[in-house]
Design a protein that fits this description.
The structure is a single chain. This protein has about 450 residues and is mainly alpha-helical. About 85% of the residues lie in helices and about 0% in strands. The chain contains 14 helices and no strands. The longest helix is centred in the N-terminal third of the chain and has 37 residues.
Length: about 450
């Protein structure tokens, strides 16, 4: 009995099932990450304003440090997915272990630098005399959890490459729950104050890392993959991560420039800007979930030497990106009356916020395609192009954004500059995707 031929409609349905199966749990895991900081803020906030201010500074430093190393997840996902597509699971897990060993090494270096430099870092952020001691305490203690945080990133990449986004969701939920309980017990029950919050977070992060390692080690033993560190493999993981590090730093520079410009516009503008950034980050989680699915799916197709499947999956994910962007844009516009009062009651902030928020809503379809194509090229291991494309984007955005105050523009003008940034990313990524140069098949790129 012969199987039914594959039609365009059945092909789209197959891709849709894969995208949903990977993207929905990935979105849940992504949302769980910022909830850690929210729980800490809610608990520490009752200790006093200086403690909360100190937590805010330390958390910003920690989140910046960890976001710089997000390439551990991205590069590992692509490399492992290729091996999976090639049908070599032992090599896939071995590749993932190299990423985990690299995460441990980088984590040790960061801890060695962060603990002694904590006072200088806190001072550089402009902490007040009352908030600085709490920020230093939280930063020094939380630094012990950085290796675990980086292991979580790398191990998440391993499981995504293995086409598993459910386990990261379960681990994230468990970590979030443990973090909340530990914070309450240590901050109030043990009377440790902000130090208790930091230790609770460290313990939760270590627990998450252990849970991931148990899953990965079991997979390695099942498939006979070595767990020992391999110098050549670790170096290869580092080389694959360097271009993605450049890309991430360039993107962080864009966000820092935007915030600096908003601050120069005045208190009302920076307040409205922070509200928009929080919403922008939430929509980014939704779109990034599709991008994560793209990394895993594209890597697998290319590893299986299926160029046609990779192209079809890319096309379908672009359609998902456009549709998701349209839906998110409409939600932003419709939810404005509910969303804005949650953050501010200041009429001046509201008046500044509304037109800029409309710009963000209009730009969501562009963002949807950008996130998807970013994920496709990451899945293809095309990190070098992504680095150059983001540097070009930064070079275009920076002068335009810096001209906003000089030309008398306000927050809306700044967010038009942010939309220009996304448009430049769209052009660079679209040109690369259309060229087909990203398509390199085989177990390795």
């Amino acid at each position: 009995m012969t199987s039914a031929p594959t039609t365009p409609r059945t092909g789209r349905r197959r891709h849709d099932r894969e995208i949903v199966a990977l993207a929905v749990p990935a979105f849940g895991a992504l949302v769980a990450e910022p909830l850690f900081v929210m729980v800490d803020s809610a608990i520490v906030g009752h200790l006093g304003t200086p403690q909360l201010a100190g937590l805010g500074i330390a958390a910003a430093l920690l989140m910046t440090a960890v976001s710089i190393f997000v390439f551990l997840a991205y590069a590992t996902t692509a490399a492992v997915a290729r091996r999976v597509g090639a049908g070599d699971l032992p090599a896939a897990i071995r590749q993932g272990m190299d990423g985990i060993w690299l995460a441990l090494l980088l984590g040790a270096v960061v801890v060695a630098l962060a603990i002694p430099s904590a006072p200088w870092l806190v001072d550089a952020f402009g902490a007040s005399d009352t908030a600085a001691p709490y920020a230093i305490t939280y930063l020094r203690i939380s630094s012990f959890g950085i290796p675990a945080m980086l292991v979580v990133l790398a191990a998440t990449g391993v499981l995504r490459g293995l086409q598993d986004t459910r386990t990261p969701l379960y681990v994230a939920i468990g970590g979030f729950t443990a973090n909340g309980i530990l914070n309450v017990v240590l901050v109030y029950g043990a009377g440790l104050g902000i130090a208790g919050s930091a230790w609770g977070t460290v313990i939760a992060q270590v627990g998450m890392a252990v849970a991931y390692l148990i899953v990965v080690v079991r997979g390695a033993r099942r498939h006979g993959a070595s767990l020992r560190p391999d110098a050549a493999g670790i170096r290869a993981s580092a080389r694959a991560g360097v271009p993605l590090l450049v890309r991430t730093l360039s993107l962080r520079a864009v966000l820092m420039i935007a915030t600096a410009v908003a601050a120069r516009l005045g208190d009302v503008d920076i307040a409205a800007h922070q509200i928009i950034l929080s919403l922008w980050s939430l929509t980014a989680f939704a779109l990034d979930a599709i991008a994560i699915a793209g990394q895993a799916i594209i890597g697998r197709y290319l590893g299986a030497n299926d160029e046609k499947g990779a192209r079809e999956a890319c096309r379908r994910m672009v359609e998902w990106g456009i549709a998701s962007g349209v839906v998110l844009g409409l939600l932003i516009m419709l939810a404005r009356p509910i969303f804005i009062p949650l953050f501010t009651s200041d009429p001046a902030v509201k008046d500044t916020l509304l037109p800029a928020l409309l710009v963000v809503a209009v730009s969501q379809p562009i963002a949807g395609v950008v996130f998807v194509l970013d994920g496709v090229l990451m899945g293809a291991g095309d990190g070098r192009y992504l680095a150059w494309a983001m540097l070009v984007t930064l070079a275009v955005f920076a002068p335009v954004a810096l001209l906003v105050p000089a030309l008398g523009g306000g927050l809306t003008a700044l967010w038009w500059a942010m939309t220009l940034m996304m448009a430049v990313r769209l052009v660079t990524l679209w040109l690369r995707t259309r060229s087909g140069r990203w398509i390199v098949t085989g177990a390795t790129r």
